[in-house]
């Protein structure tokens, strides 16, 4: 089956630093999504990517759909304490297929 | 837009009880809803895909008689955990999308604790 490797598993950074995390897939995806989950809540969609090479920003967040269609990264610039949470990548092989989730990146921001 | 409401947010009940969790799309019609289970510090595990008006498709290893799913309208899907036992304790999350090309939007989850 599909495998989605997300790294790093956790990050501890100082407020103001930039952060980067990425996901790689064993198969080609046609959609990449990035979600953030706060404790005790459901994931919230941050960025959706639909085309190879696409680079999309949402405020301080920037994500890219890799050219090979097997990877994606998420960057957070100038981190703030409320960026704390678990970030999940998710991908789909086709429009109708289910999402495959990465294992998540736990981000801790020290003020 | 794209708000998904899940209720209840937390349930604590005795072993043997059946528990119903509701998932509603508030501002869009959800042709497809998904039910996930999440263990502590783990990723989301898809349990089943629910299409309005048809039977749910369950993932391998998920007992359909244990986890009953009903998607009777375009805005409501329910998950019933029948005769729940302590090993069913978990965080259950639903998501919904309006059509195939759109991303899933998630509810806030239900923390189920079986004593």
Name the features.
heterodimer; A: mainly beta; 54% strand; B: 115 residues; mainly beta; 7-stranded mixed β-sheet; 0% helix; globular
So how many helices of chain A? 0
Instruction: Give the DSSP E fraction of chain B (strand runs of 2 or more residues).
Output: over 45%
Q: Bin the strand percentage of chain A.
A: over 45%
Largest interface (C-beta under 8 Å): A-B, 21 and 23 residues
The ordered string of helix (H) and strand (E) elements of chain B is: EEEEEEEEEEE
State the share of residues found in helices of chain B, binned by percent.
Answer: under 10%
Separate helix tally of chain B: 0
- Low-confidence residue ranges of chain A: none
- Compute the separation of the termini of chain B in Å: 37 Å
Number of strands of chain B: 11
Q: What is the element string of chain A, with H for helices and E for strands?
A: EEEEEEEEEEE
Main pleated sheet of chain B? 7 strands, mixed
Number of strand elements of chain A: 11
Radius of gyration of chain A: 13 Å
What can you tell me about this protein's structure?
Chain A has 111 residues and is an all-beta fold. Chain A has no helices and eleven strands. In chain A, the strands form two sheets. In chain A, strands 2, 4, 5, 9, 10 and 11 form a six-stranded mixed sheet that branches. In chain A, strands 1-3-8-7-6 form a five-stranded antiparallel sheet, with no helix packed on it. In chain A, a hairpin with a 6-residue loop joins strand 4 and strand 5. Chain A is globular and about 40 Å long. Chain B is mostly beta strands. In chain B, strands 2, 4, 5, 6, 9, 10 and 11 form a seven-stranded mixed sheet that branches. In chain B, strands 1-3-8-7 form a four-stranded antiparallel sheet, with no helix packed on it. The chains are: A mainly beta (111), B mainly beta (115). The A-B interface holds A 31, 33, 35, 40-45, 48, 50, 88, 95-96, 98-99, 101-104, 106 and B 2, 4, 6, 34, 41-44, 46, 49, 91, 93, 95, 100-101, 103-109, 111.
């Amino acid at each position: 089956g599909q495998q989605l490797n997300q790294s790093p598993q956790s990050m501890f950074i100082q407020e103001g630093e930039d952060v980067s995390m990425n996901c790689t897939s064993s198969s080609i995806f046609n959609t990449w999504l990035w979600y953030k989950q706060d404790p005790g809540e459901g994931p919230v969609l941050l960025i959706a990517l639909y085309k190879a090479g696409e680079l999309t920003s949402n405020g301080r967040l920037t994500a890219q759909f890799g050219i090979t269609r097997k990877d994606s990264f998420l960057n957070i610039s100038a981190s703030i304490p409320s960026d704390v949470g678990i970030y999940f990548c998710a991908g789909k092989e086709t429009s109708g297929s289910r999402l495959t989730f990465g294992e998540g990146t736990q981000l801790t921001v020290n003020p | 837009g794209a708000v998904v409401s899940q209720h209840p947010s937390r349930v604590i009940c005795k072993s043997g009880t059946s528990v119903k969790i509701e998932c509603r799309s508030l501002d869009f019609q959800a042709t497809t809803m998904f039910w996930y289970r999440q263990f502590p510090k783990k990723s989301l595990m898809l349990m089943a895909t629910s299409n309005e008006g048809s039977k749910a498709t369950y993932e391998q290893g998920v007992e359909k008689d244990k986890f009953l799913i009903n998607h009777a309208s375009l805005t409501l899907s329910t998950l019933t955990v029948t005769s729940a036992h302590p090993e069913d304790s978990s965080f259950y999350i639903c998501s919904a999308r309006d059509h195939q090309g759109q991303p899933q939007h998630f509810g806030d989850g239900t923390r189920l604790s079986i004593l």
